[in-house]
């Protein structure tokens, strides 16, 4: 193909020169020139091949036209420049024959950019197709609960569910009666295999809750405010009355972090290895557990902090305040990223769903609201609860649980991506004491409730994600696998500074710095190196480079450019018009719409 | 003469080299024609005379051409014969002699030697050389263009380059190694008239064998698996039973009885279906035999009877209809078909008939549900059905009306509607309709009046009722008016932002608004009922529980008390919350705005001192106004403050210099927007995305690319050297030749 391409081009390029030479040669014989020129021209291009001939036709005519001029001026190529500019394809093989200075790099880079974009697009499509195909491997289906012909699922009690499910699942419903050590907070590990709980009166325990194998059980002889697993089940962070302590799974105290004092709530950001602590003193502290350094200590300036949750999508910490606002924090900023006025009373609980789309808040005004976090921060639905919810939690598949006194209400949405509809509770359950901690177990249809009477693990069909990523969080992993995962996770640790509202910020160009750098460069050089050089007509002899003609030539080039621009904009307009037309035809109401109620 | 010229021009076309000599020929031929027309010659002479008038021109030597028919011995003329005069002819004597031959030859040789042409000057020669060399080189090098292009665009290059051999083995090899693994597979047999025939398998066979391969080589299918499992279980049970009989005969008997019972149950369920041998034969016979058909139906009825669960007596009526339906369904389609066949109708019609019955059955199925509630629903549906057409018409009418008189009030629609409807059922429908129309109108109006203050009222109303219903405590305060104002402010802002909000919010607002504005009795009631229901559910349950929870009751009270206190506190502080927030937002907006620079120097050019301020004119003159920044993201979100500060820590990780081919940052962003990590991609995709651009084999020498590697012959160098060999002498003729060769 290359040969075919190059051949006509060289041919195209040569004839004018030849003509030029011929004219030179023939000068003394101008006498019969008029007769022979047309035939000669045909003869010179005639022999090679027909196809070439056809291709050359428009060009040749032009040459013939130029030829007449070329008796006067020896450089016939100048007016050709804009044409070459338009199709960069021809530029490639001409390799420097074309005189246009500065015009050649631009189209080439343009074509390159286009090809790069095309490649990127193709890659994206391919990967998405592959991802869609691999969805076939997600064999497990989520559980569900359906009432018999219009029966309210909220009326189905745990005993019924336990009766209906298989033995293995039924064993996941259990109660731990621990009335001695006060209301319990609890936390599941990321794999959903381990459970840690701490009672207010100092009771701390961790167990493999599936097999009910106790890992450790200690009394820290101090009030326990909150408890949380770190990146693996081997490490436990316990917010005690004075300081933050870290234990291992044997119950041995490893660290006592005195810089985090009077901690009320803990959150662990698994991809950043950050432990976020909210304290009574009003500080939000980020502790990097991989290096043991405090990354940031932010003063929220809103008094005591005791409502905290993390957004699993972008690792932003949500704090609830007594003035009804929820503030969003990142360790990179001293001020909150955003502040949302949610309630007219203080905020009692906050929860964010796993896709980072919805935030549920409950306040002292007894209202439960679901906010849209995709830029608008507006309430999508609101519901007034008789007692208000003191604790909220989202499940992996978007179920929302609220603990109100000693009752737990669960709401479910229509699909996975839809917010839970607060119209009708999906399940309700009454516990033996007021709720103090709530969490859905990952990858299981289980909700763990910590209350004053101990721990209750209840079955919530459809709560957990049925398919787990074996490389990321494998509930069945062995010790070796865990160690390997730990190393990999540490290698892939995300820097704490990258936490911001848009987690894809890293894939964006820092435009401000870019502009600044460009400006500075221009200043340094004294001119803009990327600016297109203005057209400078070449000086011509025999009095033809008079000022008037120069201006005229300049004018011509400018007009040509302008025309190009106009043409382009017109084309764009037409396209837009077409699109609009297509859209309007697509969205035309069908005749059957009138039947829709 | 014209013919002559034409011939010459043709000659010129074919032989370019003779171009230089051509004029001579032309002249010669001109002299030939001289005899024919003297006028021409005269004219020529005239022209010459005229041209000679111009002093600059060199005078040409006059041509000697005398017209004389006689041949004189003093004069030479070639006129008569019309041939060219050859010099050798002059030598020729009357009698031929051999001694003259050498002289002749010499003469010829002398004649063939032409005068040496004038060499071109040096610059010109060099220029021509350059041109030609350039053309040659470009031509030679352009051969590599596609190769270079291909390599540049290649996703991956592997060095050292190796010639690939076709990786696909010919089919003969593949097939010769293949052997049937089971007896079910067709043995390769010659298949005539097939291109693949020589290999012994035709295309069809291949396909068939592939199918068989699939079935035999794949792991056990689920049903097979279950079969195997079942068998195993039965065996195990039998063994256990045997053991039990030995140990405890009484228990064994019981077990036996149980097994028997289970078997009976199973048999019962299986019996009287049309799957037995007898039933199948009857089904065939039923086409032609009325009795057989009857027998079959009887059997099916029995089956129905046996498999049916016991029903409550009150529902028996409905159930009967249902059984009939099911019966019809259970009778194989063939039977019905035959009945129709007697009449001999169109087979297409037949198909539709049977499907119709099916459809009817499926339609009636939900109605036949044993629940009385469901039945009621279906009944009501049935009632509505006749109304439906009317309703559609009405709706159309209504819509048209609303379109025409959008500005009019909605009450106008009511009388029109009531006139047209008579029966009660249609009135119900109409009320719904009215609500719909109302909604439509409201939407339009609200859209129109967005900017006006009226539009805010519904908004405020919307926000009000929820607390009103649930918490009288909150609203019975002395400062209520203030809060309302604040709320209005909020509402206004919300109103503005309505345009930009996503749809779900809007819809939610509308759906909330409509029940509040319109006293739509049934809907409201429903909602209220639900609310009360919820309340009942929670309030009634919790006290009973509390009484049970003895050990924690103290704390509970404590919490309750605290809650109460906080609630009261909150109730009085509620309006402050909003005001404070608005204030905070205002401050944040102010702080983020670029500041103006005031360059006035107090006391400069005028009186200074304590208490004197520079004049307003001066201040205005020296005030540098800051450029207006971009609009804030939370401009239209009254309840949100979004921090506009740039996150420099994140920015440190971002790309700040555009890489080469990109001219706009969005182009580059497009290329890096897909994550390439294995966390986000499948393994295959990840590998493909991260393939290295160049792969080299360690320990191998990478030689430069050769023409043979890409399939060219390597003679291209010799072409280049042609010109270099003899650059000394070059004349115009050479030049032309070179040129020609370079063009071709």
UniProtKB/TrEMBL annotation, chain A:
GO terms for cellular component: 90S preribosome; small-subunit processome. Residues 10-22, 557-567 have a biased composition (Basic and acidic residues). Signal peptide: none annotated. Pfam families: BING4CT (PF08149), WD40 (PF00400). It comes from the Eukaryota. Its main location: nucleus. Residues 59-80 have a biased composition (Basic residues). This is WD repeat-containing protein 46. InterPro entries: BING4_C_dom, WD40/YVTN_repeat-like_dom_sf, WD40_repeat_dom_sf, WD40_rpt, WDR46/Utp7. Keywords: Nucleus, Phosphoprotein, Repeat, WD repeat. Part of the small subunit (SSU) processome, composed of more than 70 proteins and the RNA chaperone small nucleolar RNA (snoRNA) U3. Interacts with DDX21, NCL, NOP2 and EBNA1BP2.
């Amino acid at each position: 193909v290359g040969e075919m391409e190059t051949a006509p081009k060289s041919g195209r390029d040569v004839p004018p020169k030849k003509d030029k030479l011929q004219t030179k040669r023939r000068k003394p014989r101008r006498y019969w020139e008029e007769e022979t020129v047309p035939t000669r021209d045909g003869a010179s291009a005639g022999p090679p091949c027909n196809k070439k001939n056809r291709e050359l036709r428009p060009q040749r005519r032009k040459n013939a036209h130029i030829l007449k001029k070329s008796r006067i001026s020896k450089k016939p190529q100048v007016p050709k420049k804009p044409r070459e500019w338009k199709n960069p394809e021809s530029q490639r093989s001409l390799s420097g024959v074309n005189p246009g200075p500065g015009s050649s790099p631009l189209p080439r880079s343009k074509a390159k950019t286009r090809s790069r974009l095309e490649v990127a697009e193709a890659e994206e499509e391919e990967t998405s197709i592959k991802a869609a195909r691999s969805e076939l491997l997600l064999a497990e289906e989520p559980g569900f609960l359906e009432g018999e012909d219009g029966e309210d699922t909220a009326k189905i009690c745990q005993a019924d569910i336990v009766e209906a499910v298989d033995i293995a699942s039924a064993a996941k419903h259990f109660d731990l009666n621990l009335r001695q050590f006060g209301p319990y907070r609890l936390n599941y590990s990321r794999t959903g295999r381990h459970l840690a709980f701490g009672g207010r009166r100092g009771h701390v325990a961790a167990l493999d809750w599936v097999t009910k194998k106790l890992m450790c059980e200690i009394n820290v002889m101090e009030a326990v405010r909150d408890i949380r697993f770190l990146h693996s089940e081997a490490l436990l962070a316990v917010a005690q009355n004075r300081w933050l302590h870290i234990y291992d799974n044997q119950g041995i105290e490893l660290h006592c972090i005195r810089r985090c004092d009077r901690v009320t709530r803990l959150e662990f950001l698994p991809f950043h290895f950050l432990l976020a602590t909210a304290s009574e003193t009003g500080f939000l502290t980020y502790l990097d557990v991989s290096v043991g350094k405090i990354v940031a200590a932010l003063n929220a300036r809103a008094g005591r902090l005791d409502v905290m949750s993390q957004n699993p999508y972008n690792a932003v910490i949500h704090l609830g305040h007594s003035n009804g606002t929820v503030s969003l924090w990142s360790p990179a900023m001293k001020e909150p990223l955003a502040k949302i006025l949610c309630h007219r009373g203080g905020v009692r609980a906050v929860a964010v769903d796993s896709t980072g789309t919805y935030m549920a808040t409950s306040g002292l005004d007894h209202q439960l609201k679901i906010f849209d976090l995709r830029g608008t921060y507006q309430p999508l639905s609101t519901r007034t609860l008789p007692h208000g919810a003191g604790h909220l939690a989202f499940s992996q598949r978007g179920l929302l649980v609220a603990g109100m006194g000693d009752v737990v209400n669960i709401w479910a949405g229509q699909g996975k991506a839809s917010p839970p509809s607060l119209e009708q509770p999906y399940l309700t359950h009454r516990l033996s004491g007021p709720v103090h901690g709530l969490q859905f177990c990952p990858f299981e249809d289980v909700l763990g409730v910590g209350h004053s009477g101990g721990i209750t693990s209840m079955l919530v069909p459809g709560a957990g994600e049925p398919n787990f990523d074996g490389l990321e969080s494998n509930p069945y992993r062995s010790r070796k696998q865990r160690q390997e995962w730990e190393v990999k996770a540490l290698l892939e640790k995300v820097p704490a500074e990258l936490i911001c509202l848009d987690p894809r910020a890293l894939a964006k160009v820092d435009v401000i710095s870019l502009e600044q750098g460009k400006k500075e460069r221009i200043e340094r050089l004294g001119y803009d190196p990327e600016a297109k050089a203005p057209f400078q007509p070449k000086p011509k002899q025999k009095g033809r480079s008079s000022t008037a003609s120069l201006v005229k030539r300049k004018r011509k080039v400018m007009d040509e450019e302008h025309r190009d621009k106009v043409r382009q904009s017109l084309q764009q307009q037409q396209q837009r018009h077409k699109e609009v037309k297509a859209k309007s035809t697509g969205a035309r109401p069908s005749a059957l719409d009138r039947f829709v109620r | 003469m014209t013919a002559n010229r034409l011939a010459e021009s043709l000659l010129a076309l074919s032989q370019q080299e003779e171009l230089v000599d051509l004029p001579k020929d032309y002249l010669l031929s001109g002299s030939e024609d001289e005899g024919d027309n003297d006028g021409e010659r005269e004219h020529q002479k005239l022209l010459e005379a005229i041209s000679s008038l111009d002093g600059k021109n060199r005078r040409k030597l006059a041509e000697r051409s005398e017209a004389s028919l006689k041949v004189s011995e003093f004069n030479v003329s070639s006129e008569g014969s019309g041939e060219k005069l050859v010099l050798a002819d002059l030598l020729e004597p009357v009698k031929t002699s051999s001694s003259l031959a050498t002289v002749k030859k010499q003469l010829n040789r002398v004649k063939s030697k032409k005068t040496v042409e004038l060499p071109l000057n040096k610059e010109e020669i060099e220029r021509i050389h350059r041109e030609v060399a350039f053309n040659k080189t470009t031509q030679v090098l352009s051969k590599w263009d596609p190769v270079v292009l291909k390599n540049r665009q290649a996703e991956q290059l592997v060095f050292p380059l190796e010639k690939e051999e076709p990786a696909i083995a010919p089919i003969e090899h593949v097939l010769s190694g293949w052997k049937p693994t089971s007896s079910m597979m067709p043995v390769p047999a010659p298949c005539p008239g097939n291109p693949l025939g020589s290999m012994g398998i035709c295309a069809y066979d291949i396909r068939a064998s592939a199918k068989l391969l699939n079935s035999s080589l794949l792991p056990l299918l689920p049903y097979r698996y279950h079969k195997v499992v079942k068998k195993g279980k039965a065996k195990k049970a039998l063994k256990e039973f045997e053991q039990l009989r030995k140990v405890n005969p009484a228990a064994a008997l019981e077990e036996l009885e149980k097994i028997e019972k289970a078997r009976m149950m199973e048999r019962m369920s299986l019996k009287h279906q049309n799957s037995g041998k007898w039933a199948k034969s009857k089904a065939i016979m039923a086409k032609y035999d009325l009795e057989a058909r009857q027998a079959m139906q009887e059997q099916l009825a029995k089956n129905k009877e046996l498999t049916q669960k016991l029903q409550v007596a009150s529902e028996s009526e409905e159930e009967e209809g249902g059984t009939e339906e099911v019966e019809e369904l259970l009778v194989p389609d063939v039977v019905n078909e035959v009945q129709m066949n007697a009449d001999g109708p169109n087979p297409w019609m037949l198909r539709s008939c049977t499907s119709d019955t099916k459809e009817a059955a499926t339609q009636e199925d939900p109605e036949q549900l044993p629940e009385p509630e469901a039945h009621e629903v279906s009944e009501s549906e049935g009632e509505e059905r006749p109304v439906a057409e009317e309703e559609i018409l009405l709706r159309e009418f209504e819509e048209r009306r609303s379109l025409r008189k959008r500005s009019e009030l909605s009450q106008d629609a009511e009388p029109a509607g009531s006139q047209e409807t008579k029966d009660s059922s249609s009135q119900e429908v109409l009320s719904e309709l009215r609500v719909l129309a109302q909604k439509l109108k409201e939407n339009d109006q609200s859209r129109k009046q967005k900017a006006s203050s009226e539009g805010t009222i519904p908004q405020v109303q919307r926000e009000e009722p929820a607390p009103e219903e649930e918490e009288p405590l909150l609203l019975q305060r002395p400062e209520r008016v203030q809060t309302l104002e604040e709320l209005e402010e909020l509402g206004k802002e919300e109103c503005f932002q309505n345009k930009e909000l996503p749809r779900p919010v809007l819809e939610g607002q509308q759906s909330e608004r409509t029940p509040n504005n319109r006293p739509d009795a049934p809907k409201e009631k429903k909602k209220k009922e639900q609310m009360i229901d919820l309340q009942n559910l929670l309030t009634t349950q919790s006290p009973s529980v509390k009484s049970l929870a003895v050990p924690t009751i103290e704390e509970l009270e404590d919490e309750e008390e605290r809650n109460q206190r906080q609630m009261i506190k909150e109730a009085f502080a509620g309006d402050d919350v909003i005001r404070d927030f608005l204030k905070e937002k205002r401050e944040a907006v102010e702080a983020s705005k670029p500041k103006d620079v005031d360059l006035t120097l107090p006391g400069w050019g005028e009186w200074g001192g304590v208490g004197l301020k520079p004049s307003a004119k001066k201040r205005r003159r020296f005030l540098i106004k800051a450029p207006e920044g971009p609009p804030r993201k939370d401009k239209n979100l009254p309840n949100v403050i979004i921090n506009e500060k740039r996150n420099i820590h994140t920015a440190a990780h971002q790309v700040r210099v555009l890489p080469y081919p990109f001219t706009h940052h969005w182009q580059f962003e497009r290329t890096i927007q897909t994550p390439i990590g294995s966390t986000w991609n499948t393994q295959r995709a990840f590998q493909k995305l991260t393939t290295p651009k160049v792969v080299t084999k360690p320990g191998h020498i990478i030689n430069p690319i050769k023409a043979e590697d890409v399939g060219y012959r390597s003679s291209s160098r010799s072409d280049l050297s042609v010109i270099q060999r003899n650059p000394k002498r070059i004349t115009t003729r050479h030049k032309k030749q070179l040129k020609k060769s370079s063009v071709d």
